[in-house]
Amino acid sequence: MSQNLVFTNEVATALDTILDTKAYNRLAVIVDENTGRLVLPEVKSIHLSNAHVITIGAGDACKTLDTLTCVWEGLEQCGATRKSVVVNLGGGVVTDLGGFAAATFKRGIDFINIPTTLLSAVDAAVGGKTGINFKGLKNEIGCFKEASDVIISTCFLKTLSVEELKSGYAEMLKHGMLSNHDEFKKLLNYDFKNADAEQLLELLKTSVLVKEGIVREDPHENGIRRALNLGHTVGHAFESKALHGGKPIAHGYAVAWGLVAEMVLSHNILKFPSEDLHHLANFVYENYGAYHITCDDYDELLQLMHHDKKSQSGEINCTLLAACGDVRPGHVISDDDMRIALDIYRDLMHI
Amino acid sequence: MSQNLVFTNEVATALDTILDTKAYNRLAVIVDENTGRLVLPEVKSIHLSNAHVITIGAGDACKTLDTLTCVWEGLEQCGATRKSVVVNLGGGVVTDLGGFAAATFKRGIDFINIPTTLLSAVDAAVGGKTGINFKGLKNEIGCFKEASDVIISTCFLKTLSVEELKSGYAEMLKHGMLSNHDEFKKLLNYDFKNADAEQLLELLKTSVLVKEGIVREDPHENGIRRALNLGHTVGHAFESKALHGGKPIAHGYAVAWGLVAEMVLSHNILKFPSEDLHHLANFVYENYGAYHITCDDYDELLQLMHHDKKSQSGEINCTLLAACGDVRPGHVISDDDMRIALDIYRDLMHI
Q: B141–A65: do the CB atoms touch at under 8 Å?
């Protein structure tokens, strides 16, 4: 397994260079309604100008078996064979669903990911997780198959809202904390909302390579890859609770708040430095606000954590840090410890 | 990648031994209407007696996305997680579709194949090809994922018709020819229709190991695995023509006749020994009869061969033999050479 990661804002040139080396017979590009309108015309690639365009609906609600079937049909219609190539140009829905379509068409054809959101660049486009939602369950059907090439850029980020940028930045924050203290500080001190494309690309590169290193060690998530779950046990519970309550929150926001709660746990259990915890909490509060919970919500949140799909045995399982870069996956957390952490999360978030 | 192949007629014992070592939390067994009725009750496995049974329709017409969706739903309903195991108990439809369902459920859970037909034992159950038909195209959607374990037996073959036995035996013949001259002769001299289960199991073991060796060298069919296509370029054309004409023929029969035609090509182009060609042709004629074609059918057959899905460029592509065991994949065959070969095929088949 080897995956070619290219960090550049010259996307068309990079794509043409890659495709020049591939003796493909058909090229299909998968976009959603937004990237088809806003991004595809901007990518002046010679190869792409002859590609068969397959457009899917935008948003997580379109990440379905029906959409997947339409993509398979689109590949049939353009005469794709095992020697064809798919380009996924979009956010996480396009790279996940398009990757799964390519991975299963004629038992697998090559695909190239060009993530157009910060979240998909930092998270979904690298690491080989593909899939769709099924029966209301996120990413329930899918497989592990890496894109042959990923072109990571920041030039499309101007098409995003500040909320979308922040959502992606939360995953970068997570990677920084998994990496080392310097990276963590650099991310906290950076005004990403006003960053130019080249500066952000440098930060993004470091962040993606952190993930890539972990995935390389454990492609199928049997061990160390669970480190990437940092912030997600509590984050997913917040996200699910918000969804059930009819007021969904963005994934990255949930992760940011989840990181705060899980660093409280890390402090209480593993002496994660108090100073870093407070810096993180302040940064998150300033940029993301707070997810409001009361003591009355604890039972529901604990219930959700016990049923998290990453939980093997019904126990609450968290990745913790003894310090930035000192990663301890697979901690079983008692209900009492989690309640205390949620209390302190509320204090730190001024709730 | 490593796959545990067990050759035994003590299927229940073998299955329990395997499952004793797996710390699974749910066990699902996928059967079709026939194997659910005839075979499942015969397998007195302790583990299997507690399994969740998922029954699908029998036959290639059921190898669809709808059936796949039902299997995914069945896995949801029994509470399967990444730590669950699927047992596929059936012929090629069950092992292909059940394997694909398992390979894509939560991005892949373990599955064990127990083929119940000779064809699936010798062909479909080993080698990691999973999939479903889509839009009338065979195995159009799928992926490469090996069963963790395959239990190969001959004790269920008594539930099969002679035609089903012959269909599987044609693939064994193919493996024998790919292997060496002794194996080829052994297969031609064997009265497989009256063989007992233990004797046939020995032959089957040799045959499966031939395939397994080739797959191990080239799991994703980029090179030498194409050797396994022996007999299939012409065979598929016969099969498709028969299907379009409303008189479908069994896959193995088509392969048997395809082997004869392709050994004619091998003789004409690579001096494959005439004696072996005649022995093969006689064996096939005696056991399978002939697939009747006339000169008027050649254009249609050539057309089908040019569009075979294994063809990369629209050329007719065959694996040929210079002798048994001397395999030469990737021969481009001219229309004229194919016409001559079909003429001689008709002579050999007394048409």
A: no
Q: Report the gap between the CA of A58 and the closest CA in chain B (Å).
A: 23
Is A103 within 8 Å of B143 when comparing Cβ atoms?
Answer: yes
CA distance B250 to B151: 24
Decide if A141 and B72 are in contact by the 8 Å CB cutoff: yes
Q: How far apart are CA A237 and CA B307, in angstroms?
A: 52
Q: Could you write out the DSSP letters of every residue in A65-124?
A: HHHHHHHHHHHHHTT--TT-EEEEEESHHHHHHHHHHHHHBTT--EEEEEE-SHHIIIII
A contacts of B77 (beta carbons < 8 Å) = none
- Interface confidence, given as ipTM, is 0.89
Task: Spell out the per-residue pLDDT of chain A, length 351, in tens.
Answer: 578 999 999 999 999 999 999 999 999 999 999 999 999 999 999 999 999 999 999 998 999 999 999 999 999 999 999 999 999 999 999 999 999 999 999 999 999 999 999 999 998 778 899 999 998 888 899 999 999 999 999 999 888 888 999 999 999 999 999 999 999 999 999 887 777 788 889 999 999 999 988 888 887 777 788 899 999 999 999 999 998 888 989 999 999 999 999 999 999 999 999 999 999 999 999 999 999 999 999 999 999 999 876 766 789 999 999 999 999 998 999 999 999 999 999 999 999
Does A104 sit within 8 Å of B104, measured CB to CB?
yes
Q: Is B141's CB within 8 Å of A103's CB?
A: no
Angle value at C-alpha A281, between A279 and A286, nearest 5 degrees = 95
Burial label, B197 (beta-carbon count in 10 A; 0-12, 13-18, 19+):
middle
Tell me whether residues B107 and A144 touch, CB distance under 8 A: yes
Residues of A in contact with B135 (CB under 8 A): 73, 76
Work out the burial of residue B324: count CB atoms within 10 Å of its CB; fewer than 13 is exposed, 13-18 middle, 19 or more buried. buried
Residues 6+ apart with CB under 8 A from B49: none
Quick one: tokens of A231? 């912030």
B73, B107, B144 member nearest A135 (Cβ): B73
Tokens of B336: 């004229």
The span from the CA of A174 to the CA of A208, in Å, is 11
Which member of A76, A135, A312 has the closest CB to residue B83?
A312
**Rounded distance, CA B6 to CA B9, Å?**
10
Global pTM? Answer: 0.90
